[in-house]
Every structure is written in C-alpha cells, then in structure tokens.
Predict the 3D structure of the following.
Amino acid sequence: MNANGEKERRIFRILSIDGGGVRGIIPAAILLEVERAIRRHKSGAAVKIGECFDMIATTSTGGILTCMLLFPDKDMPDRARFSAADTLRLYMENGDDVFERSIWQMLVSSGGLSNEKYSAYTLESVLSYYFNDVKMSELIRPCLITACDTEKYQPFFFSRHDARETPEREFLARDSAQTAFPVPACCDAALPVNRDRDPNVGPLINGGVLVNNPAAYALVKALGLRAQNPVRFSEIVILSLGTGPRREIAAYGHCCEWGLAGWVEPLVQIIMEGVSQTVDYQLKMVFDSIGKKNQYLRIDGTFGDCDIEDFDPAMDNADPENMKRLERFGRRLAERHKDAIQTFVEAYF
C-alpha cells in the first residue's frame, strides 16, 4: 500500500542490450541519458542505473556493461559502484587496447584468416583491473549474459540466479564477461573458468550468433525467477537498446559471386542483425496483444537517423576517431529519443 492506502502496482524492469563489439559505445552513451532521466524523476537523487533495473540482459561486449553496472560498491555491497558515465569511459579508454592487433598477432593469424585476429591478453588485463575477483553471485541484481556453446550449438547463459542456486554455474564476473566476448574469427573460443564447471559445457563464443538481442530470453527468465510470488507478464517492462547500424550487404550482382571466404563476415552480420530485428518485432506484437505496448521501448538507429558523419560499424574498429563518432551517434540517438525516455522513466521508475 502507498501513503494513500492504494495498492501499489508491481513492476519488474528489464534492461536489454544487443551485442555489437565496440559498437557497445552506442548503448553506453544512451544509458547516460537514461540515468539522467531517472535522476530528474527522483528529484536529483544520486542513483546509478544498475540499481534501477530488476534484471540486466546483454550479449557480446555487453557482458562487460552488465558486470560493470551491477558491480557492488566496496562499502555498500547492495549498491552499484559504477555509473553510466563509468561504463562509457571504460569503452573509450580501453577499446583500442582490447582490439589492438600486434604485428606478431597479425603475422600468425594471416590477418585473421588462419587464427584469431586478437590476443585475449589485453582483455584479460582490463577485466582484471575493473572487476578483481568479484563473483557473479555478488552482483547487485539478477542478470543474463549470453554465450554460444560451440559443441551443442545452443545458447549458454551466465546469470546471478544460477550462480546462487548451482555451484557449477558460479563464475568470476570477469570470466563471464570475457567468455561471452569472443567473436568468430576475432578471438579464441573460451571455456568457462570454474573449478566445479559442468563438463557438459563446451567452448563458448559470442552469444550474438544465436541471441544478439537477449530481451526475449530475459523476459522468459524473469517469469521463472521467483518460485514464491512470481513475476507476471503484465508487470514486466523492457528497455531494449540496439548497437546502431550495420554495414550494408552488397547488391545481388556482387554478392552472388562471393565464395566461402567472401560470405563469412556478411553471414555473421546477417545472423546477428536478423536475430535482433526478429526479437524486436515479436516483443512489440506480444506487448501490444496484451494491451501493454508502452511497457516495451526499443531504441536503435540507422545512419539516416542522426545528422553526424558516418562511422565504420565494424564490431572491431576501435580507432580512437571511430569510437568518438560512435559516442556522438549514441548521444545524438539519445537526444532524438529524449521525450520517449523521459515518458518511460516517469511511468515505470
């Protein structure tokens, strides 16, 4: 009951972020505006965005966003340590290091054709610096980080709920973020690091090849999250953030001449983008069918949406100038949807 004796409406808030490699800068920039909107709504309270959602679901480098947004404060472990600005800063300050190719790596991989393009060493160093030895079970909210099991051809999920319920699903947060990171042909597949690891789990790669938009999986997970007092569908609200435009696929007259090598990168792009758009369409239809269409907000964009210079949408182009353009695109996209964000926040936060 509230102060007026009225029964308060229960709301379960989900933040879902698509995969996209270094394009994770775009949703990170959008989250700055979301966090500001929440603070305005709460009369300037110094809340951090990780504290404002009941679940965060991510794919690819979004695993880093999840672990950072839900990382516990050292002195108040039920509060978030990092803000939206901190997550954007991580990308901007470390992106070129994570995706840096040494001369040796370029030689041994033949430019990515015969081996992975990037060494995992720098990524490991960055994640160790930020996340130390904090475990998945210690994150401040339920979460879902997707990966793809290359032996079973099926999704694998890192989650706080599973980590607390099952010992073999407990992982260091940094290992979960790193394991969900590898993109085919860019990084080695990885095995989850856990002394009691389930031997049935195979090497994992970036979950984007199966679950690039994890919003639907997050919804299903939320419905089964609590045995006692379960979450109802009508109580769920979702903020889903995309990672911006992809490269245009060549016209038929050109791509029909491609061989196997020519199709590898476009095929990964088609799979990941197709998954994202399909999930978005399905969720719009489902929420509309129960009369709750305002409880689902999707923010994504194309090159024509924002009046800025074009950027390279490759998942691994972490050139400093390209990252600045990605950030500007994200900020401009947030500005374009500022009213929708504010309305969403005022209704559900």
Notes: The beta strands are 12-17, 55-59, 143-149, 154-159, 204-206, 236-241, 296-299. Residues 102-115 have pLDDT under 50 and may be disordered. DSSP finds 13 helices and seven strands in the chain. The chain has one domain: 18-110+122-248+265-348.
